[in-house]
Design a protein that fits this description.
alpha/beta, Spore Coat Polysaccharide Biosynthesis Protein SpsA, Chain A, 2 domains, 7-stranded mixed sheet, 7-stranded parallel sheet, elongated, binds guanosine-5'-diphosphate-alpha-D-mannose
């Protein structure tokens, strides 16, 4: 069997809720549990037998970070990886149709399609087995999971036939409740899916025949959810495979903390060697902690649970870090304390300073509690309590407290802040 994977990485206009962290690096490359978000996707699909190629489709200009990621992942997973750039945002299916020749080259039997901004313990092998048992005319299997009624409104919602798991009705982000089974943004597709994509593409061209190509939205835009899944429901060509394993979107920085915790937890089984252990002369480790081999951590520091210390970070004497991600090159000076926060690239936190956020986790103990749907601001314009995010190259002085705040890059703070966005 020959398989491929397409990862939809979006582009610079996407990931705005992830600012300021996405100002420095494309969101799909943001490190979670020590590795870029899409490294976890590539790792999952490389484990499926027959996987020959991973194609990243997006509308970012190719850049050094992306090229470095591709080179490194190709070497590690011994798999071909390429980036194909859309000339403009073509939607969640337009890019796939645009690059159909490259996707179909070599005649893959099936291809996985993955949104980059999700994380999880993806059951890809199980999806493949499920899909192969369905009629040969099946176009696509959607990975589905259960959300609460409230959460479901921000996702694609699926009504299925309970016996066959055929998708009978699909509504993208409904205004009123449809179903608690939601689309996880992970699909297994047969090459025959290009049939309905072609029909939709031609329909678009005809409808937009008289449009000014420069001002009209690209005629090639196809939305997988609304344009393809909605009409395919109830035709016997679309199925849903359920998972109750960990899965979540990564839209906001808070969700990155959530994803960090769950990927670290997965390492217990998949990569125990990546988790720090307690030993004499080493920092005290509580629960799941990832420390990059190049980081310098003082033996009196106390780390975890759910802490990631990035490349070349320096962690001083008596430092405490919990439920946080410390990004490459950050320096945590002696006795500072970082809880429920992200510390940006090359930022410095002064001695005895406290950086603290409020976890926004609706259901911390449920493995697939997913999303946090909270808004950045309350209705009366106040900042909702959130994790604290310190942008890159920020200097935080000694002996201050920064609570539930977001600090943009390159700031030199001079005092304490609570519930603020520091521009
Ligand atoms: N290449 C490319 N081009 N990628 C895109 C484009 C595009 O024009 N538009 C979106 N993407 C990528 C995004 O970067 C993201 O990884 C993914 O496609 C989905 O993006 P959104 O358009 O923001 O959709 P969503 O996340 O709100 O909803 C989708 O995912 C949910 C699960 O997380 C839908 O598929 C929902 O039905 C689903 O529940």
């Amino acid at each position: 069997m020959m398989l491929k994977t397409i990862i939809l990485v979006g582009g610079p206009m996407k990931g705005t809720r992830f600012r300021p962290l996405s100002l420095e690096t494309p969101k799909p490359l943001f490190p979670v549990a020590g590795f870029p978000i899409i490294h976890h996707h590539v790792e999952a699909c490389a484990q499926v037998e027959g996987m020959k190629e991973v194609i990243l489709i997006g509308f970012y200009q190719p850049n050094d970070a992306l090229n470095r990621f591709i080179t490194q992942a190709q070497q590690q997973f011994k798999i071909q990886i390429r980036y194909l750039q859309e000339y403009t945002a073509l939607g969640t299916a337009g890019g796939i149709y645009h690059f159909r020749d490259q996707i179909l080259a070599g005649n893959p039997d099936y291809f996985f399609l993955m949104n980059a901004d999700v994380c999880g313990d993806f059951p890809l092998k199980e999806m493949l087995q499920f899909h192969m048992k369905k009629p040969a005319s099946t176009y696509c299997t959607i990975l589905g999971t259960e959300a609460t009624r409230q959460q479901s409104l921000t996702y694609g919602c699926i009504v299925e036939s309970k016996d066959t798991h055929e998708v009978m009705h699909y509504v993208e982000k409904p205004e009123t409740f449809i179903s608690t089974t939601i689309n996880c943004g992970i699909y297994l597709c047969s090459p025959t899916l290009f049939g309905p994509l072609e029909v939709e593409f031609k329909k678009n061209l005809e409808q937009n025949y008289n449009c000014d190509y420069n001002t009209a939205p690209a005629k090639e835009v196809i939305r997988m959810e609304q344009d393809i899944f909605v009409p395919l429901a109830s035709t016997g060509k679309l199925y849903v495979y359920h998972t109750d394993r960990f899965w979540s979107q990564i839209k906001s920085a808070g969700a990155a903390i959530y994803a960090n915790r769950h990927y670290l937890d997965l390492y217990q089984k998949s990569h125990p060697e990546r988790l720090a252990k307690n030993s004499v002369g080493k920092p005290q480790i509580r629960g799941d902690v990832f420390i990059h081999p190049s980081a310098q951590v003082h033996e009196t520091a106390v780390l975890g649970p759910n802490a990631t210390i990035g490349k070349n970070c320096v962690v001083g004497e008596g430092v405490r870090v919990r439920d946080s991600v410390i990004l490459e090159g950050a320096v945590l000076q002696d006795h500072c304390c970082v809880l429920d926060s992200i510390i940006g690239w090359n930022s410095q936190i002064g001695v005895w300073t406290r950086i603290e956020g409020t976890p926004n986790d609706p259901n911390p103990n449920k493995p697939f509690a997913k999303i946090e749907t909270t808004q950045t601001f309350t209705n009366d314009g106040k900042l909702n309590p959130s994790i604290t995010v310190i942008g890159s190259d920020v200097q935080v002085p000694s002996e201050v407290i920064i609570l539930n705040s977001i600090v943009l890059p390159n700031k030199e703070l001079s005092g304490c802040y609570k519930n603020q966005i520091i521009l």
